[in-house]
Amino acid sequence: MNKAGIALIAAGAAFAIQNTSAQIFQDNFESGNLNLWTATTANPMTIDNTQNFSPAGGTFSAKVDNSLDRMHRNIIGDNGGSEISGYVSFSVAMYDDGNATGAVGSTRMFSEIRGYSLTGLPNGGTTADGTLQQLFAIGKTQSGTFGLGDTLNTTKYQGRFTAGTTAGWFNLTGAADRTPGWHVFTIERLSDNTTVNFYVDGVLGRTITASAASIDTIIIGPGLGSQAGDSFVDAVTLSVPEPSTYALIGAATAVLGVFSRRRK
């Protein structure tokens, strides 16, 4: 087998990791309650029937009426008792009330995935186990420490990471400008544990390089400031590679191992 063949095997394995995924957690709030979530602060979100994104013709979403609102979900139990290393995709639909300047309405609207040194924020509790190792956020903000040479652009949506070179908030310059209504925000960390893509409505807004950390917690709602204003969250989904993908990776590794021994 030549170098081109090796490259083809490696590329195929990488493609499988990033394109064959299984949901390990999903909530579209059609249960009519927030029983899958724990209030992280003294301000929980509320179930709401005035806005809905998914499913089509559905009824409920989770409402933020103050930027202090925040809830979390520990996903270790959803992932067979393990934190998530390597490829992970986090997707959430959020409703933007149209405010872009900070004058009125919702000035912060974002969701996060986090990794702690131990098991993170527990379901049913608010004291994190371990220290924060990494945080990825996506949505919109009105302030914060910016990295990557950026300053706040209130016409764009933002992403954030907390561990890595020039960490901080950054503008999703490749995606469309802020507009009122529902948008789907996606954070995709690739299998190398450090390359992270941020999408708005399926359009790549920015790719960053961050420090590696395993993921254990989902956060919805900002939990910062005290700005009144309505925004909504729906269709929260966390995905990892299908188990069959790991078999493909193993097979590819074995082929590469045989080739290496033959070369020697």
Q: What does this molecule look like?
A:
- This protein has helices at residues 3-19, 243-263, and strands spanning 21-27, 38-39, 46-48, 61-66, 71-74, 88-96, 109-116, 132-140, 158-161, 168-171, 181-189, 195-200, 203-209, 217-220, 228-241.
- With 264 residues, it is mainly beta.
- Strands 1, 3, 4, 6, 11, 12, 13 and 15 form an eight-stranded antiparallel sheet that branches.
- β9 and β10 form a beta hairpin.
Number of E-state strands: 15
Beta-strand residue percentage: 35-45%
In whole angstroms, the N-to-C terminal distance is 13 Å
| Shape estimate | globular
CATH topology of the largest domain: Jelly Rolls
CATH class (first level) name of the largest domain: Mainly Beta
Largest pleated sheet:
8 strands, antiparallel
Helix and strand run: HEEEEEEEEEEEEEEEH
Mean pLDDT: 87
Number of helices: 2
Category by helix and strand content = mainly beta
Described by its quaternary structure, the protein is single chain
Poorly predicted spans: 1-18, 245-250, 255-264
Which architecture of the largest domain does the CATH hierarchy give at level 2? Sandwich
Total count of domains? 2
Radius of gyration, rounded?
20 Å
| Helix amount | 10-25%
At a glance:
The protein has 264 residues and is mainly beta.
Name the features.
264 residues; mainly beta; 8-stranded antiparallel sheet; 15 strands; 36% strand; 2 helices; 2 domains; Jelly Rolls; single chain; 7-stranded antiparallel sheet; disordered N terminus
Furnish the topology, listing elements before pairings.
Layout: H1 3-19, E1 21-27, E2 38-39, E3 46-48, E4 61-66, E5 71-74, E6 88-96, E7 109-116, E8 132-140, E9 158-161, E10 168-171, E11 181-189, E12 195-200, E13 203-209, E14 217-220, E15 228-241, H2 243-263
Antiparallel strand pairs: 1-15, 2-5, 3-4, 4-15, 5-14, 6-11, 6-15, 7-8, 7-14, 8-9, 9-10, 11-12, 12-13
Helix pairs in contact: 1-2
